[in-house]
Every structure is written in C-alpha cells, then in structure tokens.
C-alpha cells in the first residue's frame, strides 16, 4: 500500500466505505490509486511506513508536536516541520492566537520556518500537528508546498468536545488544490493527542462555571 502513496490525486474514498482498520477519525492517506490508509495500518506490526518520506518516524515527530502543544495547555495545538531527507526538525510552533487570531500552531511553525530558512525547499518537508489542520492552516500548507501533513486528533473529535471548528476537513482542502499533490496522514498517536484536548476541555469547563460566555478556542 505504501507504493500507492507517491502523491495525492483527486479521488477521496468516502468514510462509510472504510473499515476501522483503515479509518481512525479521518481520511489518512490518499495515493495515486485512490488508496486510503489510516494510522492503524501505519502503526501495525510489520506495516510499511507510507508517505513520500518512508524513513520518517511519524510517532517520534508527533511526540515533538505534542511537546510544543504542552506550551499552551489551554489550546494544545502544536506543530513541527521536518526535513524529509535528513529527518531533522527545522521549525516548530504552537498556538499563539492570543497574539494574533491567525497564529494557529501550523501557521506559527510555517512562519518560523520561512523566517529562519528563506531558501527553504518546501516540497522536501513534512508538517506534524497535534490536531487536523483547519481550512486556513491546510490552505497555508498547500500554498507553501509542504509535501505531507500528519495529524493526530481529528476535527470531528474536536467538534464533539465543543471546540470551535470550521466544518471543512483537511482532505477536502487537499482535494480542491489541483496544483499540489499533498500527502495526508491522520490518527498518528491519536489517543495521546486526544488526551491533550480532553484535559483542556476539563479546565475550560471549570472556567465556564465562572464565566458562562467563555468557550474553548480554535486551533
């Protein structure tokens, strides 16, 4: 199945056609043949590592994104950008929407990368984020030309918790970007990422008892 992951095409398999082995919370990987992989296939014993960067350890870099997320426990959206060739983290970011409402974790990481590496070869990079990118963030990933997006928590999970989320999935943004072939993998360390938001929700609920108008914020 890894061989089908050479690039993104315009075929998205509907969620209802996927079994639990291939679908954990979100469409994960869409390849040239329309193949969809979930993190269960990725993390299974003996499973190949799909994607344009087969040597990357997705769990390792997702844990780095989780560490970024912990810097803002109320909004645990963390991201790292990784060079797919050297397997080195080249930029990191976390939610800074208190400074600027558009500074989501992915946006912060992209901005940090652009500032530090003005000659960046974006198609050689992968972005890891604790939660599925919102339409703004996935669009920024597309405009930058990052080759691969890897996320943990899905937008539907965040919506079920009551977090504000624009109801457009990352795979829909990818599908509607014909000039890119972005790879998308969801559900990596999903339970660990979900736990971040469950803790944040618990804290937010305590705050709600003091201020009923306050709600969890976006990514």
Describe what you observe in this structure.
The protein is of the alpha/beta class. It is 33% helix and 15% strand. The chain has helices at 39-43, 58-69, 105-116, 135-144, 155-161, 170-175, 190-210, and strands spanning 29-30, 36-37, 78-83, 89-94, 125-131, 148-153, 183-185. It has a five-stranded mixed sheet with strand order 4-3-5-6-7, sandwiched between helices. A two-stranded antiparallel ribbon has the order 1-2.
Distance between the termini: 31 Å
Strand content: 5-15%
Give the strand order, joined by hyphens, for the main sheet: 4-3-5-6-7
Q: Percent helix among the residues? A: 25-40%
Tell me about the largest β-sheet: 5 strands, mixed
SSE string: EEHHEEHEHEHHEH
Shape: globular
Average pLDDT, rounded to a whole number, is 80
Number of strands: 7
Low-confidence stretches: 1-37, 40-48
Instruction: State Rg.
Output: 16 Å
Briefly say what this structure is.
The chain contains 7 helices and 7 strands, in the order ββααββαβαβααβα. It has helices at residues 39-43, 58-69, 105-116, 135-144, 155-161, 170-175, 190-210, and strands at 29-30, 36-37, 78-83, 89-94, 125-131, 148-153, 183-185.
């Amino acid at each position: 199945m890894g061989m089908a992951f050479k690039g993104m095409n315009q075929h998205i398999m509907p969620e209802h056609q996927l079994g639990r082995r291939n679908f954990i919370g979100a469409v994960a990987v869409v390849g040239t043949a329309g193949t969809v992989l979930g993190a269960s296939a990725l993390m299974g014993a003996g499973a190949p590592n799909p994607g344009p960067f087969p040597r990357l350890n997705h769990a390792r870099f997702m844990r780095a994104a989780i560490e970024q997320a912990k810097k803002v426990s109320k909004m645990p959206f963390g991201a790292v950008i990784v060079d797919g060739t050297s397997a080195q983290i080249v930029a990191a970011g976390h939610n800074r929407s208190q400074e600027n409402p558009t500074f989501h974790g992915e946006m912060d990481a992209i901005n940090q990368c652009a500032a530090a590496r003005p000659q960046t070869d974006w198609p050689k990079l992968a972005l890891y984020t604790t939660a599925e990118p919102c339409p703004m963030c996935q669009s920024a990933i597309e405009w930058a030309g990052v080759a691969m997006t890897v996320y943990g928590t899905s937008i539907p999970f965040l919506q079920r918790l009551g977090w504000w989320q624009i109801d457009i999935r990352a795979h829909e943004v990818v599908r509607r970007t014909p000039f890119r072939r972005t790879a998308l993998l969801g559900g990596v360390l999903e339970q660990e990422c979900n736990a971040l938001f469950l803790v944040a929700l618990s804290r937010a609920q305590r705050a709600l008892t003091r201020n009923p108008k306050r709600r969890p914020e976006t990514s």
